[in-house]
Amino acid sequence: MDYRISGIYNRCVTIELNNEDSFHTKAPVSVSINGEKIYDTDRNVIYLDGLTPDTTYEVEINGKKQTFKTKSETVLLDVCDFGAAGDGVHDDTAAVQAAISACPAGGTVYIPAGKYRCTPIFLKSRITVYIDTGAEILGETDREKYPKLPGMVTCQDEVHEISFASWEGNPLTSYASLFTAIDAKEIDIIGRGTINGNANNGDWWKYPKVKRGAWRPNTFFAVRCSHIRMAGVTVMNSPAWTIHPYYSDRLEFCCISIKNPADSPNTDGIDPESCSNVLISGTVIDVGDDCIAIKSGKYYMAKYHHKPSSEIVVRNCLFKNGHGAVTIGSEIAGGVNHVKVTQCVFEGTDRGVRIKTRRGRGKESVLDDLKFDHIVMNDIPMPVTVNMFYFCDPDGHSKYVQDKKSHEVDDMTPSIGKISISDTVCHGVDASLLCVEGLPEMPVEAIELKGISADFIHCGKRVDMTPVMMDQFEPISGIPIFAENVKQLTVDDVSVTGEDLNEDVLAGIADSSFKDYTVRNRRKNGTKNSSISQGCKEL
Predict the structure, then answer these.
(1) Which of 249, 323, 374, 430 is catalytic?
(2) How many CB atoms lie within 10 A of CB 123?
(3) Given 188, 268, 271, 289, the catalytic residue
(4) Catalytic site includes residue 323
(5) Per-residue model confidence as pLDDT tens digits over 5-52
(6) 100, 128, 191, 211, 410 from 75: Cα distances, Å
(7) What is the tens place of the pLDDT at every residue in 198-210?
């Protein structure tokens, strides 16, 4: 069994199996440390903790051995020694913050089993926060006890400005997050404990789009940070987006679990915004909105603080429920490029791959080199959607945004480059396998489907639905491919099965290539969704 040591910390390690399986292994593997069996697992990414710093270990997986050495540690500081009660009643903020402030570089702040009620904790550079099994950081429910972070502050030179907070793509005053890092680097958050935003017991989810004091906080927020790693922990009940790195680089989120109720508003799992070199692996996300949403701000930030999100890898993850498994947009004015999502399982999300933008995001909103492969989608009614008419923001339903007539290309026009989806299995499709709505003045550059199998649910159970959130789009069902305004559409080795399937809808396609495209049980007589379908084999 080939594998690699993917992340070495002072008290834990992550290991990734080298295979092409999606999240789960085909058969369980046995994991041992120094000759002692730890457990059997069916996950491709393995998390092992309870290790000793600066110590060499031998790991064995299905008979194959490797050695690694844990990172060193200068000191271990127990928050209880600083006065934390851990009883879920007393306010432990001051004690936890004191331990973090006192911790020297290379040290670890240890949070043992217990419930630690806290208001926002501010992290600093070069430390580890070890949240042990049975430990829970429990967010205070009274918003009046949360500090506010200004969205943008003018520097003393009266020329430059600096952001401390963000709300839905703009630098707006927001409450500090339960864990907040500002201009920090080399922070590890590890362990099997829980970071609980506790929003289910407060009023954060009431009137979610109304500013009350300040905008809602995340559970973890990092701005202008680098080399941030999180492994093992559970993060739950977030007031808004759960993990929100902002203008940060070299980030890793491995073997963590994110849980928010299905009806919790805007509780995205991980939202890297204007970030680069991000790895998300071995992670399970079950939330009330997008599981992962890659963003780069709205127009103001793109114009004055331009930084695209780039070099992002999502691998061996499980995404459940929510509105999209992996979303790119819509606060995307700075652009996104070089994204690879591979070996993941999507279960029960409204959409699988969800890409969205709109007029007004601007010329810097360039989305390009987006690759998705070896994905298993279960019970996903709309596996792949691309929408350039997304009706977000106060003007989202305006004629400017929603007009399907061609506009002049100008500084406010976004663009989408190359998107590829390959070696993917889709079960339980309802509306469409692929739904694309490009702008007539700026069609999507290229979309490739290769090595795809998709099965639609029984025609008696299909429900007309709208794959893309835009005006002037009538609900559909049973349409394998719906594509408007695409320069190059490539369909290669794609098999679609179902009952009474409708014709494809193709319009505004400059160039198309269909090879080995098989549709079983397509409706013969045409429907209201009749099309310009071509190049397919009907069986």
Answers:
(1) 323
(2) 20
(3) 289
(4) yes
(5) 999 999 999 999 999 999 999 999 999 999 999 999 999 999 999 999
(6) 12, 10, 17, 42, 57
(7) 999 999 999 999 9
